[in-house]
Amino acid sequence: MSREIIAILRGITFDEAVPVTEALIAAGITRIEVPLNSPDAWASIAAMIAVAGNEAIIGAGTVLDPGDVLRLARMGAGMIVSPDCNPRVIVATKKAGLLSFPGVFTATEAFTALRNGADGLKLFPAFKLGPDGMRALSAVLPAGTECYAVGGVGSADFAEWRAAGVTGFGIGTALYQPGISPRDVAARAADLVAAWDALS
């Protein structure tokens, strides 16, 4: 079962990357990103792709440059996530055959992202937009637009956000923080998966 939960491993180190990835996949989370401003991000992503590339979509977050998109594509990454709506990054991502999830907050940014080929929208920071803002935005977005609430959202918020129209969630500190054990990540992931499955 594919769940629309993207694990955001900001700050992860190379030594943690593989065991945390394995813990997430075992719990049922198969979309995983390492922000490029994490320590040893490139090495971590390469190691994660090597062990889990057939079981999960491994990608990068905080991608700001088209050149980084090309490097990630050559490594075998599957998705590109950004904090902003940069048409150059979106176009490069789609030309490389990767999934594109740019960060948006306004209708202008959302439509710019979609016109340039984005697969889904990263609503960031979601806690500032709120479910009410999502309802207003979803009223004008094309039917079927994939929207992911990212930033300040946890399992307790899933039902309200889904009712407001989001497709899924990007989960960072509620799932992973530097230094916590893979076992703790697995427990947090299991809680998130249970909350997601309860909505089905």
Automatic annotation (TrEMBL):
InterPro entries: Aldlse_KDPG_KHG (IPR000887), Aldolase_TIM (IPR013785), KDPG/KHG_AS_2 (IPR031338). Keywords: Carbohydrate metabolism, Lyase. The keyword GTP-binding does not apply. Coiled coil: none annotated. Pathway: Carbohydrate acid metabolism. One of its GO terms (molecular function) is lyase activity. Transmembrane segments: none annotated. Pfam families: Aldolase. Belongs to the KHG/KDPG aldolase family. Homotrimer. This is 2-keto-3-deoxy-phosphogalactonate aldolase. It comes from Roseivivax lentus.
